[in-house]
Design brief:
Blueprint: E1 8-14, H1 18-29, E2 33-40, H2 47-61, E3 68-70, H3 84-87, H4 109-118, E4 124-128, H5 133-141, H6 145-148, E5 149-155, H7 170-173, H8 176-183, E6 189-192, E7 201-202, H9 204-211, H10 216-236, E8 241-242, H11 246-253, E9 258-263, E10 265-267, E11 278-280, E12 292-298, H12 300-313
Helix pairs in contact: 1-2, 1-10, 1-11, 4-5, 5-8
The structure holds beta-D-ribofuranose (BDR) and calcium ion.
Beta-D-ribofuranose (BDR) binds near residues 44, 163, 244 and 245.
């Protein structure tokens, strides 16, 4: 995480969130990454809780040198929505970290994002695991950062069904205006939406295989997701629970296991029923230039192998 040589520099913007916690862990323990900052945003729970959760996760992991900052507590236009029904009252299910927490960085996350990007040489990948409020605000406050972003890899949206409404996926629905600012920014964007989730199911066998690695990170993996797996399965009647956010980190570790299709994407901001839907022009019928690489498939065996190997690597 210290030196930048041959590492992928990333800013991790997140709303932990059980699946966010797994993603943070993968980014923090895989030596491929140079984790520049972790920025919390309101989403799965209130900003107060998502920030605390980011600190808890980093403290449990022993990640002390990465600044963790609190960002936007409210979406830009809409009324706040949270996903306590999925991630529980703490926002992190049953995970309970009792030890001392690392200190919160005193800067606002939006300022930290701006400073980190302006000081970079344009090589930073912005990884968004929650609503896009922090990044959209940073783009509006300091438009010069836009050219400094190498790529945005975001978890959110869907080119088919939604989850929080029939039309919309949670991260986009939680701040559609912010999502539209980001999606129309002109930088390369990879959108990993709900369409891939049924392919990354945390089946009992997978969870057993990973926990049986038997190290600290395998135990954390289990503690981060045990509550969440049950709640997602019940809510959406899945055969096993999809795990969303780690896909952004796995994508950066090995993009070759993901299949993408360039599409024109626009967020629905006007319709009541479809508010927050990502209209993805799969067939190019609008004749507009594609602005997003939309993930349309992935190799789930390879996905879980990467998660497994990253956890095992740190035994
Ligand atoms: C997304 O919503 C959140 O609940 C998860 O953390 C993930 O980022 C999936 O729709
Ligand atoms: Ca999330």
């Amino acid at each position: 995480m210290g030196e930048t040589n041959n590492k992928i520099p990333i800013i991790l913007d997140t709303d932990p969130g059980c699946d966010d916690a797994v993603a943070i862990m993968l980014a923090a323990i895989n030596p491929l990454f140079d984790l520049k900052a972790i920025t919390a945003v309101s989403g799965n729970h209130t900003l107060k809780k998502t920030t605390q959760n980011a600190l808890k996760v980093c403290s449990a992991l022993g990640v002390v040198q990465v600044p963790v900052a609190a960002g936007m507590s409210q979406p830009i236009v809409r009324k706040q929505v949270i996903a306590e029904h999925v991630h529980g009252e703490t926002g992190l299910g049953n995970f309970n970290f009792g030890g001392p927490l690392i200190p919160l960085d005193s800067r606002h996350a939006v300022n930290l994002i701006i400073k980190t990007l302006l000081n970079s040489n344009g090589d930073i990948i912005f990884v968004a695991l929650g609503p896009l409020t922090n990044l959209a605000m940073a783009m509006r406050l300091e438009p010069k950062i836009i050219a400094k972003i190498k790529r945005i890899v975001m978890i959110g949206g869907s080119y088919q069904l939604g989850n929080i409404t029939p039309a919309a996926e949670f991260n986009i629905y939680a701040d559609p205006e912010a999502a539209q600012i980001v999606i129309s920014c002109g930088r390369p964007i990879v959108m990993i939406g709900l369409n891939i989730t049924e392919k990354v199911l945390a089946t009992k066998e997978i969870v057993k295989r990973i926990t049986s690695i038997g190290n600290k990170y395998a135990a954390l993996f289990f503690n981060f997701i045990d509550f969440y797996i049950i709640s997602i399965k019940k809510l959406y009647n899945y055969e096993a629970s999809p795990i969303y956010d780690p896909a952004a980190i796995v994508y950066l570790i090995n993009p070759a296991i993901f299949k993408t299709k360039p599409m024109y994407v626009e967020v629905e901001l006007k319709s009541e029923l479809a508010y927050g839907r990502t209209h993805c022009d799969y067939y190019g019928s609008l004749n507009r230039p594609p602005n997003v690489e939309v993930v349309i498939d992935l190799d789930s065996d390879e996905f879980w192998k990467i998660v497994h190997d990253t956890i095992k690597l740190n035994s």
